[in-house]
Amino acid sequence: TGRYGLGADGRHIIDENLSKEEKLALIRERLKMPNADRIFFVKEALKLNISVDEIFKLSKIDKWFLHNIKEILDVEREIKNKKLSNKLIKKAKECGFSDIQIAYLKGKDEIEVRKLRRKNKIEPVYKLVDTCAGEFDAKQPYFYSTYEKENESRTSNKKKVIILGGGPNRIGQGIEFDYCCCHAAYALKEIGYEAVIINSNPETVSTDYDTSDRLYFEPLTIEDVLNVIERERPLGVIVQLGGQTPLNISKGLEKAG
């Protein structure tokens, strides 16, 4: 959907000029339609005090998920209405809010929020996805980020380069970007560099267990890529092989240094 989370990013799915009655009618109609945007209409329904029971009847989405979405909305309201303390930032990150969402809710800049978060040592850790299910030692481990305490990331002091993958495949997008990322990884390893891939699409060859030295299943956003860069400390980042998705964040990465 091109969104940074469950809304709170400056993009409105409903025309703000509609009356409350018109909004409610539109929401109730769209809750019946299963598509990529429906989760945002669930949030809008909760904002207008449509009950979880009614949303369930219209959407057939399990109430467990609906209550979790409501919890996210409650945290969003808390961020918007309270002072941005260390405790609140940590709570927001544990609930999945991106820096750009927090920045939007507080009228700040994304980099400003990032600096504040890092100053107060609120940073993600990386958990291991064991590709061998414990039977053998996973030599090419997969990692994903979370805001907990224990870090399982296995970095090294070797020379390394990060390759940004293509992210989710879209209509009209072929396999050429994944092909390029794979061969970049092979070439880097041939000349003595570690190849570290960041990609959020598990259905690609570039995310196979034996393509790179390490793989991070992370969204291709400035925030998430910078988090990996700060942990891995690469000599460089290759952005041009993954198509438009990594190219869109290249200027932001350059600005961040």
From TrEMBL:
SMART domains attached here? CPSase_L_D3
Which sequence ranges are marked TM in the entry?
none
Cited InterPro entries: CarbamoylP_synth_lsu_oligo_sf, CPSase_lsu_oligo, CPSase_preATP-grasp, PreATP-grasp_dom_sf
SUPFAM superfamilies from the entry?
Answer: Carbamoyl phosphate synthetase, large subunit connection domain, PreATP-grasp domain
Gene3D superfamilies in UniProt? 3.40.50.20, Carbamoyl-phosphate synthetase, large subunit oligomerisation domain
Which is a Gene Ontology cellular component entry for this protein? cytoplasm
Catalytic reactions on record: hydrogencarbonate + NH4(+) + 2 ATP = carbamoyl phosphate + 2 ADP + phosphate + 2 H(+)
Known Pfam families for this protein? CPSase_L_D1, CPSase_L_D3
Q: Which keywords does this Swiss-Prot/TrEMBL entry list?
A: ATP-binding, Ligase, Magnesium, Manganese, Metal-binding, Nucleotide-binding, Pyrimidine biosynthesis
- Recall the GO molecular function terms of this protein's record: ATP binding; carbamoyl-phosphate synthase (ammonia) activity; carbamoyl-phosphate synthase (glutamine-hydrolyzing) activity; metal ion binding
Keyword Metal-binding present in the record's keywords: the answer is: yes
Q: Which residues form the Carbamoyl-phosphate synthetase large subunit oligomerisation domain?
A: 27-147
A Gene Ontology biological process in which this protein takes part is:
glutamine metabolic process
Which PANTHER family does the record cross-reference, listed alphabetically? Answer: CARBAMOYL-PHOSPHATE SYNTHASE [AMMONIA], MITOCHONDRIAL, CARBAMOYLTRANSFERASE FAMILY MEMBER
- What is the protein's given name? Carbamoyl-phosphate synthetase large subunit oligomerisation domain-containing protein
Organism annotation = marine sediment metagenome
